[in-house]
Model the fold of this input.
Amino acid sequence: MTNSHSETARQLVHMGSGCFALLLRYLTWWQAAGLACAAIAFNAAVLPLVGGRRLYRPSDHARGFPVGILIYPAAVLLLILAFPTRPDIAAAAWGILAFGDGAATLVGRRFPSASLAWNREKSVGGTVAFVICGSAAGVVLATWTRGAVSPLPPLMFALLAPAVAAVVAGFVETIPVRLDDNISVPIVAAATLWFGSVTSSMAFASTRDEFFALVPRAIAVNAVVSWLGYRARTVTVAGMLAGAFVGMVIYACAGGAAWLFLFSAFFIATAASRLGLKRKNLLGIAEEHGGRRGAGNAFANCGVATIAAAAVVFTPHAAPAMLAFVAALTAGGSDTVASEIGKAWGRATFLVTTLGRVKPGTPGAMSLEGTAAGIVAAFGLAALAAELGLVPSWTVVPIVVAATAGSLVESALGATLEGPGILNNDMLNFINTAVAAGVALALYFRL
Done:
């Protein structure tokens, strides 16, 4: 059988396995988890013996075992464990993984179309198929399993949230990295569905008037500032547009003080990028485009903060959402300061995973000078947020701890996964801010 036929068979199995998500309406979470564990064992030990080797990709044959067909049931298991009381979320994310990802591959192979500008290996047709089929499967499965959730989720959630999750997961699936889609797609889909599950029309109704009053000002301020940033050569054209969008959302949802904090974090990061340029250029580790920020930088460093800002308006958890917003921006700003100061003046750089000395600019490298500068920047940003009234003053230290934790996680992942191309710098920055937001929230609810 040719590789094409093998991949077709693989994707048909991939999609067919998604039909088992229908069982989540009837199974308890522990029963479902047990079946997922059994599926992992079956795929590892039995499937290769009954003809399953034709489902192996060339890389699987090279290493002697199938990574993808093991990660798939493992991802399903994690969905079940993460949402034991929300089988509709687990089922919808599973459906997006099974039918969205599977359809993208089949359509992309059978009906060649134009390639995406940012990833020549992905096609427009495949991405459209991902969104359409993933949305349909997610809506069907969320609606089917909705009755097993108590209290009953709104029907509008089952009809809309999976479609939005499929769009977001479909975009992430096109990012040119080697991270297995069986990992990235369900995580992104489930996170999007979870956010949709905590939104509330009543929460938005209570802030609606203020939100709409701020929208014109948000558009005007960010249009001007983004243009000035482009003229000052701090952002590219794409960065200008992305930054304007991020700024508008943050201003309209979280207010002028939150936008000022966003601007401060961006200013500090940009200033740090300009420091020590002579040495960075000599070492070949200066930022691309002369330190100008692109769209990827905007969404990677501010994506989590933008989502948190939206949560201020659209969920009944405004205070925790604002804390997550501050922690995410603090992590992004302080990490950039740490990285740029380390490149400019770090005397010795090392990997956090091995503590071994490496060259400046090595993925995941840290320095004492850079780390110290990052912590100082985190304290400064957190204190500014408290002064602006965004968070209580007692949260300054937890925010700094959270930002430092995010930076350490990013360094560890960068040292191990950036070199092989499994993650890129933008994804690492997003993970950094997400970890910081999560740690800050964990400390907030425990202290």
Notes: The chain has a mean pLDDT of 90.
